[in-house]
Amino acid sequence: MGLLNTIKALCVAEKGADIVDTNGNLVAHFGINKAAEGGQRGLTSEYEIMRGDLVNVLYERSLEQRAKIDEEGKEGGGELKYEFGKTVTELAQGDDGVDVTFSDGQKKRFDLVVGADGQGSRTRRMAFGQEVSKEAFKSIGVHTAYYSIPRAKGEGEMAQLFFAPGSRFLLTRNSDRPMTQVYLFIMKDAERLKAVYKESIEEQKEVWAEAFKGAGWQSDRLLGALSSCDDWYAHEVAQIKMKSWYTGRVVLLGDAGYGPSPFTGMGTTASLVGAYVLAGELARNGRDVGAALKAYNEIIRLPVDECQKMPSSIGMFFPSSRIGVWILNKAVWAISSLRIDERINRWLPKSKEEVAWKIPEYPELNLD
Length: 368
Ligand SMILES: Cc1cc2nc3c(=O)[nH]c(=O)nc-3n(C[C@H](O)[C@H](O)[C@H](O)COP(=O)(O)OP(=O)(O)OC[C@H]3O[C@@H](n4cnc5c(N)ncnc54)[C@H](O)[C@@H]3O)c2cc1C
What we know:
Blueprint: H1 4-10, E1 16-20, E2 26-30, E3 32-33, E4 44-45, H2 51-72, E5 88-93, E6 98-102, E7 107-110, E8 113-115, H3 122-128, H4 130-136, E9 137-150, E10 158-164, E11 168-173, E12 179-186, H5 190-196, H6 201-212, H7 219-224, E13 233-240, E14 246-247, E15 250-252, H8 255-258, H9 267-285, H10 289-299, H11 301-307, H12 322-338, H13 340-347, H14 352-356
Parallel strand pairs: 1-10, 3-4, 8-15
Antiparallel strand pairs: 1-2, 5-6, 6-7, 9-12, 9-13, 10-11, 11-12, 14-15
Helix pairs in contact: 3-4, 9-10
The site of flavin-adenine dinucleotide has 18 residues, from helix 8 and helix 9.
Protein backbone atom coordinates (compact mmCIF):
# COMPACT_ATOMS: atom_id res chain seq x y z
CA MET A 1 0.00 0.00 0.00
CA GLY A 2 3.07 2.25 -0.04
CA LEU A 3 2.64 3.00 3.65
CA LEU A 4 5.82 1.57 5.11
CA ASN A 5 7.63 4.90 5.58
CA THR A 6 4.56 6.54 7.12
CA ILE A 7 4.24 3.60 9.51
CA LYS A 8 7.96 3.62 10.34
CA ALA A 9 7.73 7.28 11.31
CA LEU A 10 4.98 6.46 13.81
CA CYS A 11 6.58 3.39 15.35
CA VAL A 12 7.05 3.47 19.12
CA ALA A 13 10.50 3.37 20.66
CA GLU A 14 10.22 0.01 22.45
CA LYS A 15 13.56 -1.78 22.27
CA GLY A 16 12.52 -5.13 23.71
CA ALA A 17 11.18 -6.68 26.88
CA ASP A 18 12.74 -7.48 30.25
CA ILE A 19 11.34 -10.27 32.38
CA VAL A 20 11.82 -9.28 36.02
CA ASP A 21 11.43 -10.93 39.41
CA THR A 22 9.48 -9.55 42.35
CA ASN A 23 12.41 -7.27 43.33
CA GLY A 24 12.69 -5.89 39.80
CA ASN A 25 15.88 -7.84 39.08
CA LEU A 26 16.40 -8.90 35.47
CA VAL A 27 15.53 -12.55 34.78
CA ALA A 28 15.71 -12.53 30.99
CA HIS A 29 15.81 -10.08 28.09
CA PHE A 30 14.23 -10.29 24.63
CA GLY A 31 15.19 -7.82 21.91
CA ILE A 32 13.36 -6.73 18.78
CA ASN A 33 12.04 -9.31 16.30
CA LYS A 34 13.22 -8.28 12.84
CA ALA A 35 10.45 -8.34 10.23
CA ALA A 36 10.50 -11.38 7.91
CA GLU A 37 13.13 -13.15 9.98
CA GLY A 38 11.33 -16.13 11.43
CA GLY A 39 8.80 -16.25 14.23
CA GLN A 40 8.09 -13.79 16.98
CA ARG A 41 10.29 -14.60 20.01
CA GLY A 42 9.62 -11.69 22.31
CA LEU A 43 6.98 -8.99 22.59
CA THR A 44 8.49 -6.33 20.37
CA SER A 45 8.34 -6.25 16.58
CA GLU A 46 10.48 -4.15 14.25
CA TYR A 47 7.33 -2.22 13.30
CA GLU A 48 5.62 -1.67 16.63
CA ILE A 49 2.81 0.83 16.06
CA MET A 50 -0.16 1.69 18.25
CA ARG A 51 -3.49 0.48 16.90
CA GLY A 52 -4.99 3.99 16.83
CA ASP A 53 -2.04 5.33 14.81
CA LEU A 54 -2.33 2.51 12.28
CA VAL A 55 -6.09 3.06 11.94
CA ASN A 56 -5.44 6.76 11.34
CA VAL A 57 -2.85 6.05 8.64
CA LEU A 58 -5.30 3.77 6.80
CA TYR A 59 -8.17 6.25 7.22
CA GLU A 60 -6.17 9.22 5.91
CA ARG A 61 -4.77 7.23 2.99
CA SER A 62 -8.22 6.03 1.93
CA LEU A 63 -9.44 9.64 1.78
CA GLU A 64 -6.34 10.72 -0.16
CA GLN A 65 -6.83 7.89 -2.67
CA ARG A 66 -10.48 8.79 -3.13
CA ALA A 67 -9.56 12.47 -3.71
CA LYS A 68 -6.87 11.43 -6.21
CA ILE A 69 -9.33 9.36 -8.21
CA ASP A 70 -11.74 12.32 -8.29
CA GLU A 71 -8.96 14.69 -9.38
CA GLU A 72 -7.82 12.41 -12.17
CA GLY A 73 -11.44 12.07 -13.30
CA LYS A 74 -11.08 8.27 -13.44
CA GLU A 75 -14.14 6.05 -13.62
CA GLY A 76 -15.12 3.85 -10.69
CA GLY A 77 -13.78 3.59 -7.20
CA GLY A 78 -17.27 4.07 -5.73
CA GLU A 79 -18.35 6.49 -3.07
CA LEU A 80 -16.39 6.69 0.16
CA LYS A 81 -18.10 8.13 3.18
CA TYR A 82 -17.22 7.66 6.87
CA GLU A 83 -19.98 8.16 9.42
CA PHE A 84 -19.10 8.16 13.09
CA GLY A 85 -21.26 7.83 16.17
CA LYS A 86 -23.95 5.60 14.74
CA THR A 87 -24.41 1.85 14.52
CA VAL A 88 -26.40 -0.72 12.61
CA THR A 89 -29.46 -1.89 14.53
CA GLU A 90 -31.10 -4.21 11.96
CA LEU A 91 -30.10 -6.20 8.91
CA ALA A 92 -32.62 -7.75 6.53
CA GLN A 93 -31.25 -9.93 3.73
CA GLY A 94 -32.72 -9.69 0.24
CA ASP A 95 -31.71 -11.60 -2.93
CA ASP A 96 -29.40 -8.90 -4.20
CA GLY A 97 -28.81 -6.65 -1.24
CA VAL A 98 -29.21 -5.97 2.45
CA ASP A 99 -31.68 -3.52 4.00
CA VAL A 100 -29.88 -1.81 6.83
CA THR A 101 -31.42 0.20 9.66
CA PHE A 102 -29.14 2.55 11.59
CA SER A 103 -29.35 3.77 15.17
CA ASP A 104 -30.50 7.23 13.97
CA GLY A 105 -33.48 5.62 12.23
CA GLN A 106 -32.04 5.93 8.71
CA LYS A 107 -32.75 2.96 6.39
CA LYS A 108 -30.72 2.13 3.30
CA ARG A 109 -30.14 -0.80 0.94
CA PHE A 110 -26.56 -1.97 0.29
CA ASP A 111 -25.13 -4.52 -2.20
CA LEU A 112 -22.88 -5.87 0.53
CA VAL A 113 -22.39 -5.38 4.27
CA VAL A 114 -18.92 -5.98 5.71
CA GLY A 115 -18.86 -6.51 9.48
CA ALA A 116 -15.45 -5.41 10.75
CA ASP A 117 -16.63 -4.59 14.27
CA GLY A 118 -14.15 -6.60 16.31
CA GLN A 119 -14.17 -9.64 18.58
CA GLY A 120 -17.60 -8.89 20.11
CA SER A 121 -19.13 -8.16 16.68
CA ARG A 122 -22.78 -7.19 16.75
CA THR A 123 -22.95 -7.70 12.96
CA ARG A 124 -21.99 -11.34 13.55
CA ARG A 125 -24.85 -11.69 16.00
CA MET A 126 -27.39 -9.99 13.75
CA ALA A 127 -26.44 -11.78 10.53
CA PHE A 128 -25.61 -15.28 11.81
CA GLY A 129 -27.80 -15.38 14.92
CA GLN A 130 -27.04 -15.47 18.62
CA GLU A 131 -26.29 -19.19 18.70
CA VAL A 132 -23.71 -19.24 15.87
CA SER A 133 -22.11 -16.10 17.25
CA LYS A 134 -21.82 -17.55 20.75
CA GLU A 135 -20.46 -20.83 19.41
CA ALA A 136 -17.81 -18.89 17.44
CA PHE A 137 -16.44 -17.28 20.61
CA LYS A 138 -13.80 -19.72 21.92
CA SER A 139 -12.53 -18.56 25.27
CA ILE A 140 -8.92 -19.42 26.04
CA GLY A 141 -9.57 -19.11 29.76
CA VAL A 142 -7.59 -15.90 30.28
CA HIS A 143 -8.95 -12.50 31.29
CA THR A 144 -7.05 -9.31 30.67
CA ALA A 145 -7.25 -5.62 31.52
CA TYR A 146 -5.49 -2.60 29.99
CA TYR A 147 -5.07 0.97 31.22
CA SER A 148 -2.55 3.81 31.34
CA ILE A 149 -0.81 5.43 34.29
CA PRO A 150 1.78 8.24 34.55
CA ARG A 151 5.31 7.18 33.72
CA ALA A 152 7.68 6.46 36.60
CA LYS A 153 11.33 7.47 36.77
CA GLY A 154 13.49 4.96 34.92
CA GLU A 155 10.70 3.64 32.68
CA GLY A 156 11.67 3.93 29.08
CA GLU A 157 12.35 1.89 26.02
CA MET A 158 11.98 -1.55 27.60
CA ALA A 159 8.72 -3.36 28.28
CA GLN A 160 8.74 -5.10 31.68
CA LEU A 161 6.96 -8.33 32.47
CA PHE A 162 6.54 -9.99 35.85
CA PHE A 163 5.14 -13.50 36.35
CA ALA A 164 3.30 -13.65 39.67
CA PRO A 165 2.12 -16.67 41.61
CA GLY A 166 -1.64 -17.16 41.50
CA SER A 167 -1.82 -17.60 37.70
CA ARG A 168 -1.19 -13.93 36.92
CA PHE A 169 1.23 -11.74 35.06
CA LEU A 170 1.74 -7.99 34.89
CA LEU A 171 3.24 -6.07 32.00
CA THR A 172 4.18 -2.42 31.53
CA ARG A 173 5.12 -0.70 28.27
CA ASN A 174 6.26 2.89 28.08
CA SER A 175 8.35 3.40 24.92
CA ASP A 176 9.49 6.84 26.09
CA ARG A 177 5.98 8.31 26.29
CA PRO A 178 4.47 10.33 29.16
CA MET A 179 2.03 7.53 30.03
CA THR A 180 2.82 3.87 30.74
CA GLN A 181 0.52 1.15 29.50
CA VAL A 182 -0.39 -1.47 32.07
CA TYR A 183 -1.59 -4.97 31.10
CA LEU A 184 -2.94 -7.41 33.69
CA PHE A 185 -3.46 -11.06 32.73
CA ILE A 186 -5.07 -13.73 34.88
CA MET A 187 -6.06 -17.36 34.38
CA LYS A 188 -8.32 -17.89 37.38
CA ASP A 189 -11.45 -16.33 38.93
CA ALA A 190 -13.10 -16.58 35.50
CA GLU A 191 -16.68 -16.62 36.77
CA ARG A 192 -16.19 -13.60 39.05
CA LEU A 193 -14.49 -11.59 36.27
CA LYS A 194 -17.06 -12.59 33.63
CA ALA A 195 -19.90 -11.49 35.89
CA VAL A 196 -18.41 -8.07 36.58
CA TYR A 197 -18.13 -7.05 32.88
CA LYS A 198 -21.85 -6.29 33.06
CA GLU A 199 -21.24 -3.90 35.97
CA SER A 200 -19.80 -0.37 36.08
CA ILE A 201 -16.13 0.34 35.37
CA GLU A 202 -15.64 1.25 39.07
CA GLU A 203 -16.89 -2.19 40.10
CA GLN A 204 -14.68 -3.87 37.49
CA LYS A 205 -11.65 -2.01 38.81
CA GLU A 206 -12.45 -3.11 42.36
CA VAL A 207 -12.68 -6.79 41.43
CA TRP A 208 -9.45 -6.63 39.41
CA ALA A 209 -7.62 -4.78 42.20
CA GLU A 210 -8.69 -7.53 44.59
CA ALA A 211 -7.54 -10.24 42.15
CA PHE A 212 -4.05 -8.68 41.81
CA LYS A 213 -3.61 -7.53 45.43
CA GLY A 214 -0.18 -8.49 46.78
CA ALA A 215 0.96 -9.94 43.43
CA GLY A 216 4.47 -8.56 43.97
CA TRP A 217 6.89 -6.38 41.98
CA GLN A 218 5.12 -3.06 41.21
CA SER A 219 1.58 -4.29 41.87
CA ASP A 220 0.97 -1.64 44.58
CA ARG A 221 1.91 1.18 42.20
CA LEU A 222 -0.02 -0.25 39.24
CA LEU A 223 -3.17 -0.91 41.28
CA GLY A 224 -2.87 2.37 43.20
CA ALA A 225 -3.27 4.29 39.94
CA LEU A 226 -6.36 2.34 38.91
CA SER A 227 -8.99 4.68 40.31
CA SER A 228 -7.70 7.70 38.36
CA CYS A 229 -7.13 6.04 34.97
CA ASP A 230 -9.67 6.98 32.31
CA ASP A 231 -8.96 4.38 29.62
CA TRP A 232 -9.79 1.17 31.48
CA TYR A 233 -10.70 -1.84 29.33
CA ALA A 234 -11.04 -5.45 30.41
CA HIS A 235 -12.28 -8.54 28.58
CA GLU A 236 -12.16 -12.29 28.21
CA VAL A 237 -9.46 -13.39 25.76
CA ALA A 238 -10.87 -15.53 22.97
CA GLN A 239 -10.39 -16.68 19.44
CA ILE A 240 -13.25 -16.35 16.95
CA LYS A 241 -13.69 -19.51 14.91
CA MET A 242 -16.36 -19.89 12.24
CA LYS A 243 -17.18 -22.47 9.58
CA SER A 244 -18.15 -19.75 7.10
CA TRP A 245 -17.52 -16.02 7.16
CA TYR A 246 -20.45 -14.97 5.02
CA THR A 247 -24.16 -15.43 4.88
CA GLY A 248 -26.09 -14.00 1.95
CA ARG A 249 -24.73 -10.51 1.39
CA VAL A 250 -23.13 -10.03 4.82
CA VAL A 251 -19.47 -10.91 5.30
CA LEU A 252 -17.18 -10.73 8.33
CA LEU A 253 -13.66 -9.34 8.29
CA GLY A 254 -10.86 -9.27 10.87
CA ASP A 255 -11.46 -9.98 14.57
CA ALA A 256 -15.24 -10.12 13.97
CA GLY A 257 -14.80 -13.32 11.95
CA TYR A 258 -11.41 -14.72 12.86
CA GLY A 259 -9.84 -12.83 15.77
CA PRO A 260 -6.79 -14.90 16.77
CA SER A 261 -6.39 -13.26 20.26
CA PRO A 262 -3.60 -10.96 21.49
CA PHE A 263 -1.50 -14.03 22.38
CA THR A 264 -0.70 -14.70 18.73
CA GLY A 265 0.35 -11.15 17.77
CA MET A 266 -1.25 -11.90 14.37
CA GLY A 267 -4.63 -10.11 14.55
CA THR A 268 -3.62 -7.16 12.40
CA THR A 269 -1.97 -9.43 9.85
CA ALA A 270 -5.12 -11.56 9.57
CA SER A 271 -7.34 -8.46 9.27
CA LEU A 272 -5.22 -6.80 6.58
CA VAL A 273 -4.78 -10.00 4.59
CA GLY A 274 -8.55 -10.57 4.83
CA ALA A 275 -9.34 -7.02 3.69
CA TYR A 276 -6.93 -7.32 0.74
CA VAL A 277 -8.35 -10.67 -0.42
CA LEU A 278 -11.95 -9.47 -0.04
CA ALA A 279 -11.23 -6.33 -2.06
CA GLY A 280 -9.33 -8.38 -4.65
CA GLU A 281 -12.11 -10.92 -5.07
CA LEU A 282 -14.79 -8.21 -5.35
CA ALA A 283 -12.72 -6.49 -8.05
CA ARG A 284 -12.14 -9.79 -9.85
CA ASN A 285 -15.74 -11.01 -9.77
CA GLY A 286 -17.41 -7.77 -10.85
CA ARG A 287 -21.13 -7.84 -10.09
CA ASP A 288 -21.07 -11.47 -8.95
CA VAL A 289 -20.83 -10.71 -5.24
CA GLY A 290 -21.71 -14.33 -4.33
CA ALA A 291 -18.70 -15.66 -6.27
CA ALA A 292 -16.43 -13.09 -4.62
CA LEU A 293 -17.59 -14.04 -1.11
CA LYS A 294 -17.22 -17.76 -1.85
CA ALA A 295 -13.64 -17.22 -3.07
CA TYR A 296 -12.77 -14.98 -0.08
CA ASN A 297 -14.13 -17.63 2.27
CA GLU A 298 -11.96 -20.33 0.69
CA ILE A 299 -8.75 -18.35 0.14
CA ILE A 300 -8.35 -16.92 3.63
CA ARG A 301 -8.97 -20.24 5.45
CA LEU A 302 -5.30 -21.23 5.34
CA PRO A 303 -3.77 -17.91 6.47
CA VAL A 304 -6.41 -17.58 9.18
CA ASP A 305 -5.57 -21.07 10.49
CA GLU A 306 -1.89 -20.11 10.51
CA CYS A 307 -2.57 -16.82 12.32
CA GLN A 308 -4.69 -18.61 14.93
CA LYS A 309 -1.95 -21.03 15.93
CA MET A 310 -1.37 -20.64 19.66
CA PRO A 311 1.42 -21.76 21.97
CA SER A 312 0.39 -25.35 22.74
CA SER A 313 -0.07 -24.71 26.42
CA ILE A 314 -0.96 -21.16 27.30
CA GLY A 315 -1.30 -22.35 30.91
CA MET A 316 2.48 -22.63 31.27
CA PHE A 317 2.65 -18.81 31.37
CA PHE A 318 0.32 -18.79 34.37
CA PRO A 319 1.92 -20.80 37.18
CA SER A 320 -0.10 -20.87 40.37
CA SER A 321 2.73 -21.35 42.90
CA ARG A 322 6.02 -19.62 43.72
CA ILE A 323 7.96 -22.70 42.67
CA GLY A 324 6.05 -22.66 39.37
CA VAL A 325 7.11 -19.05 38.79
CA TRP A 326 10.72 -19.97 39.61
CA ILE A 327 10.68 -22.80 37.03
CA LEU A 328 9.04 -20.58 34.40
CA ASN A 329 11.64 -17.85 34.96
CA LYS A 330 14.44 -20.40 34.51
CA ALA A 331 12.82 -21.64 31.29
CA VAL A 332 12.42 -18.09 29.97
CA TRP A 333 16.05 -17.37 30.82
CA ALA A 334 17.13 -20.47 28.86
CA ILE A 335 15.05 -19.41 25.86
CA SER A 336 16.45 -15.87 25.86
CA SER A 337 20.10 -16.77 26.54
CA LEU A 338 20.55 -20.17 24.92
CA ARG A 339 17.89 -19.62 22.21
CA ILE A 340 16.73 -23.21 22.67
CA ASP A 341 13.37 -22.46 21.03
CA GLU A 342 15.15 -21.51 17.79
CA ARG A 343 17.31 -24.64 17.89
CA ILE A 344 14.19 -26.79 18.28
CA ASN A 345 12.34 -24.88 15.54
CA ARG A 346 15.21 -25.46 13.11
CA TRP A 347 14.74 -29.20 13.58
CA LEU A 348 10.97 -29.20 13.19
CA PRO A 349 9.56 -29.64 9.68
CA LYS A 350 7.50 -26.71 8.42
CA SER A 351 3.76 -27.42 8.16
CA LYS A 352 2.41 -27.86 4.63
CA GLU A 353 0.27 -24.75 5.06
CA GLU A 354 3.23 -22.63 6.07
CA VAL A 355 5.03 -23.62 2.89
CA ALA A 356 1.97 -23.54 0.63
CA TRP A 357 0.30 -20.20 1.27
CA LYS A 358 1.23 -17.16 -0.78
CA ILE A 359 -0.65 -13.89 -0.81
CA PRO A 360 -2.59 -13.78 -4.12
CA GLU A 361 -1.97 -11.13 -6.78
CA TYR A 362 -4.94 -9.03 -7.90
CA PRO A 363 -4.03 -6.97 -10.97
CA GLU A 364 -7.72 -6.01 -11.03
CA LEU A 365 -7.06 -3.74 -8.04
CA ASN A 366 -4.74 -1.55 -10.16
CA LEU A 367 -2.35 -1.06 -7.25
CA ASP A 368 0.65 1.14 -8.00
C1 LIG B 1 -3.63 -6.03 24.17
C2 LIG B 1 -3.66 -6.41 22.72
C3 LIG B 1 -2.48 -6.57 22.06
C4 LIG B 1 -2.48 -6.93 20.72
N1 LIG B 1 -1.29 -7.04 20.07
C5 LIG B 1 -1.27 -7.31 18.76
C6 LIG B 1 -0.04 -7.36 18.06
O1 LIG B 1 1.04 -7.17 18.62
N2 LIG B 1 -0.08 -7.61 16.74
C7 LIG B 1 -1.25 -7.81 16.09
O2 LIG B 1 -1.23 -8.03 14.87
N3 LIG B 1 -2.43 -7.78 16.72
C8 LIG B 1 -2.47 -7.54 18.05
N4 LIG B 1 -3.66 -7.48 18.71
C9 LIG B 1 -4.90 -7.79 17.98
C10 LIG B 1 -5.35 -6.62 17.10
O3 LIG B 1 -5.50 -5.45 17.88
C11 LIG B 1 -6.66 -7.00 16.46
O4 LIG B 1 -6.56 -8.27 15.87
C12 LIG B 1 -7.04 -5.97 15.38
O5 LIG B 1 -7.18 -4.71 15.97
C13 LIG B 1 -8.32 -6.40 14.70
O6 LIG B 1 -8.76 -5.38 13.86
P1 LIG B 1 -10.29 -5.24 13.52
O7 LIG B 1 -10.38 -3.99 12.72
O8 LIG B 1 -10.80 -6.51 12.93
O9 LIG B 1 -11.06 -5.09 14.89
P2 LIG B 1 -10.89 -3.97 16.02
O10 LIG B 1 -9.52 -3.41 16.04
O11 LIG B 1 -11.45 -4.55 17.25
O12 LIG B 1 -11.85 -2.80 15.50
C14 LIG B 1 -13.24 -2.92 15.53
C15 LIG B 1 -13.83 -1.54 15.43
O13 LIG B 1 -15.26 -1.64 15.31
C16 LIG B 1 -15.87 -0.72 16.18
N5 LIG B 1 -17.18 -1.24 16.54
C17 LIG B 1 -17.49 -2.22 17.43
N6 LIG B 1 -18.80 -2.44 17.44
C18 LIG B 1 -19.36 -1.59 16.56
C19 LIG B 1 -20.69 -1.36 16.11
N7 LIG B 1 -21.72 -2.05 16.60
N8 LIG B 1 -20.89 -0.41 15.16
C20 LIG B 1 -19.84 0.29 14.65
N9 LIG B 1 -18.57 0.10 15.02
C21 LIG B 1 -18.34 -0.82 15.97
C22 LIG B 1 -14.92 -0.61 17.36
O14 LIG B 1 -15.10 0.62 18.05
C23 LIG B 1 -13.56 -0.67 16.65
O15 LIG B 1 -13.16 0.59 16.23
C24 LIG B 1 -3.71 -7.14 20.05
C25 LIG B 1 -4.92 -6.99 20.72
C26 LIG B 1 -4.91 -6.63 22.05
C27 LIG B 1 -6.23 -6.47 22.76
